[in-house]
Amino acid sequence: MLNVIWQSPSVLFGLAAIAAPILIHILVQRRAERVPFPTLRFLQPTRLASIRRHLLDDGALLAVRVAILAAAVAALAGPLVITAARRQAWERRIVRAVVVDDAAPSSNGREAGQVARGDDRAELHLSRDFTTTSLPDGVRRAVAWLDTAPVARHELVVVSPFPIGSLTAADIAAVPASIGIRLERTGALPRTRTVPAGRVLGAGGVVAREAMLDGQRTSLRAEAAPEPLSWPIEVLNQPEAQPAIDAAIAAVLSQRVWAPAPGRRATLVVMAGTGPSPVSGAAIRTPWIADGAARLLRDADVQTAAAQVSTGLTDARFFSAPWQAVAFAADGRALAVAAESSGRLLVASGAPASTIVTPLLMRSIVNALGVVPDLRRGEVAPIADRRLREWTRPAAIPRVPVAGDRRQDDGGNDRRLLWLTVLCLLGIEMWMRRARSAAADAREEIARVA
Fold this sequence. Notes:
Blueprint (H helix, E strand, L loop, with lengths): L2 E4 L12 H9 L31 H19 L1 E4 L1 H9 E9 L21 E10 L2 H13 L5 E8 L8 H5 L6 E6 L6 E11 L2 E10 L2 E8 L8 E4 L5 H13 L2 E2 L7 E5 L16 H12 L1 H7 L17 E5 L5 E8 L2 E6 L7 H13 L15 H7 L21 H37 L1
Parallel strand pairs: 3-4, 3-5, 5-6, 10-12, 12-15
Antiparallel strand pairs: 1-2, 7-8, 7-11, 8-9, 13-14, 14-15
């Protein structure tokens, strides 16, 4: 049973253009044919009147022109005739995306993309490698490519040592069920590894930390850095609130927060107190400032503490751009808002300096300025083989494309056949026009001679 789908069905509205040649054939001004006549002097003169014929002339030429337009529109719409043979060809072939961990050792002799064949009954139709330092990101890019690949059995192959945390069940669940998954472990992880664990601010100054990973055990070593302590937040507040601000800073440093990255600073304006504090900000354009504002909004401790404050900000300036709300009071109004100012993260808070909101807000801002190390890259414990087998699945039988599907059959035979038909019809139309023009010229010559 044949089934035809259209990859761009909206193009079929172009079939309305078929009316153009019909109208042209109806409205075109035909040249009057000269008929030889011996004399007109015995005919009684009558009033002249023009007569226009509204009949289709030369139906064969009109039919060819209509067929040209119809075939061109159909070719642009991308027809795909689905036959039993084509279905079987789709089921036999494999389109494979290979995600290769950039940290995977290559000493085992397997290079990127050189993976086991898998299903011997299938033929590899198309393959593409995705080298990445983050397996979840590589999997997302591979799935996006498979979504537009030719119709076939789609397979995702991941090549990595698979340290714990490099791939999770959520990453696997995000892969469509129609895509087969094969996880190939390559190389071996080292038994121990020492990696930087970031720099933190404490009451005694800056502390540099290292993490030693040994199998399932993790030990942390801290060492004071020679650089002096520099508080990265400029706090603007009323004089009477200064003791509470100092106490909040000391509380934050006692918990140790991430040291800020070079060039990252913030300004915190505590609006509560006697008299307004002048503050103006601009729309957030810098990526790290946008990330910092988003982190404030996601901080559960800040949101919980803010909800205990009865009223939020009352100044109408903070209710619209460029300000972005990052915490809300009990009355539903914004209690803290963020913007950008001279390359800094600018936060305005309506909470009193003496409330728990202020130190929590400071802690969240400082952590937003820092760079959190990703210790997963230094992991030495591998994901269990049993878990990798649970995540593995075969490639499913490809589903038949539907109208407007982004997938395609890269053979393109149906579309090319229609374009070939268009070319042939254009040749026929040109030949017919020339033949009719030559015939008309011949008749006119005979009349002139007569």
